[in-house]
Amino acid sequence: MNLARLAAERASEGRPVRAALIGAGKFGSMFLSQVPHIAGLEVTHIADLDPDRARAACRAVGWDEARIARTAFLDSGTAAAEAGVDVVIEATGAPGPGIAHALAAIAARAHIVMVNVEADVLAGAVLAGQARAAGVVYSMAYGDQPALVAEMVDWARATGFEVAAAGKGTKYLPAYHQVTPDDVWSHYGLTPEAAAAAGMNPQMFNSFLDGTKSAIEMAAIANACDLDVPGDGLGFPPCGVDDLAHVLRPRPLGGQLARDGMVEVVSSLERDGRPVFRDLRWGVYVVLRAPNDYAAACFRQYGLPTDTTGRYASMYKPFHLIGLELSVSVLSAALRSEPTGQTRGWHGDAVAVAKRDMRAGEQLDGEGGWTVWGKAVPAARSRTEALLPIGLAHGVVLTRDVTAGEVLRMSDAALDEAAQPVMLRRQMLA
Fold first, then answer.
1. Measuring CA to CA, which of 179, 298, 306, 409 is 20 to 30 A from 30?
2. Distance between CA 396 and CA 171 in Å, rounded?
3. What is the CATH topology of the domain spanning 3-143+323-336?
């Protein structure tokens, strides 16, 4: 990849890549832990709602006091985005602020690495277009699963294979869609007290469990890789790494997909709760289709796991290291002007589904909360029905009664039409 060499050359020239980090949570902290060990990369600004917490995070990951002293700690993400750095990293996880910070970075002619997948799925098509017009890079965050999947899809296509399926693994059972932050920790084998002592956010962790995070990430992958989302949402089939090519192929061939070219998430649990053999809970995958008999024969000769036809084969990475790998995106944007995955179109969306019956006047609490979960749907359906994105389903009041399991529309919530995220979504619907 040559990124380390290019970065080292910048270090030797005395002009390292300068980055600003917005959001010093777990993802940001993992990135910060690696920065002192990467020649040619400096984080000059860190923005967090609590700058002292950000300083504490730097100390916790091993920064010395000299490095902390020469870093600007801010309480404004916009100020960090406008600080004159090469790359801005948006890692807040909040869609509204994430969009604002991305726009500020683009206006300041800084590359933007979007850890904030929630903001990307809500308005990434618009943001990426504005970044291209401004001559800067808008990029997914390497280390997070969408960027890793995008890399695998790009590899597959660059080597002449058709992508039958791409996605990730997770822990899933259908009942998880109704889990709330009140009972989330029992599914992780933790007590509420132990989770609180570790600083773990129950709503964030519930988003991983109730299917919302999977919906967001698969929509992001679909939008970056020109893949389709299943018509009625993700199926989460139980599947281990040895069976990816069997399960993730079209139904006429015995698989569980409507056709080739789909995103899907595989579960690490059988539907009765038993663990899947050799599961992919922490990893990512791509299923390839050989374009000819010769390539299919090579699959067998070189040991790729294939389906019974021999034409479908799978490749996977068993882990992802999130923030520990983020510097790949930062350096790629600054040194090669290339994103590590980027929204190219609008193929998938993550929309709000009611977790329970609710009455008009009740307030929705968004991703991972008590009221709604996020479901992946094709963008065409979201556009036609003006469905409510999960990124707009926080802090808004219902305008009518809804029933459990109902997919919500934008007209079902009292949205602030003057708010930037709402305006951008309306722009996408136009």
1. 179
2. 29
3. Rossmann fold (3.40.50)
Token digits of residue 218? 């698969």
**What's the distance, CA 390 to chain centroid?**
14
Has this prediction a pTM greater than 0.85? Answer: yes
Tokens of 226: 């020109």
Show the CA angle centred on residue 398, arms to residues 395 and 402, nearest 5°.
130
pLDDT for the residue numbered 430: 82
Within the chain, which residues score under 50 in pLDDT? none
CA dihedral 150, 153, 159, 161 (to 10 degrees): -170
3-state secondary structure of 78: helix
Give the N- to C-terminal CA distance of the chain in Å, as an integer: 40
Distance set, CA 9 to CA 15, 35, 40, 180 (Å): 9, 16, 7, 50
Quote the tokens at residue 411. 């007209």
Q: What share of the chain is helix, strand, coil (3-state, %, to 5)?
A: 40, 20, 35
Residue ranges of domains in the chain? 3-143+323-336, 146-172+211-319, 348-429
- Residue 24, amino acid: A
- Which string of b and e fits 291-328 if b means at least 16 CB within 10 Å? eeeebbeebeeeebbbbeebbbbbbbbeebebbebbbb
Cβ contact 352:163 at 8 Å: no
Among the four given CATH numbers 3.40.1160.10, 3.90.1210.10, 3.20.20.70, 3.90.850.10, the one describing domain 348-429 = 3.90.1210.10
User: Distance between CA 347 and CA 69 in Å, rounded?
Assistant: 45
Q: pLDDT (tens digit, 9 = 90+) per residue, 286-303? A: 999 999 999 999 999 999
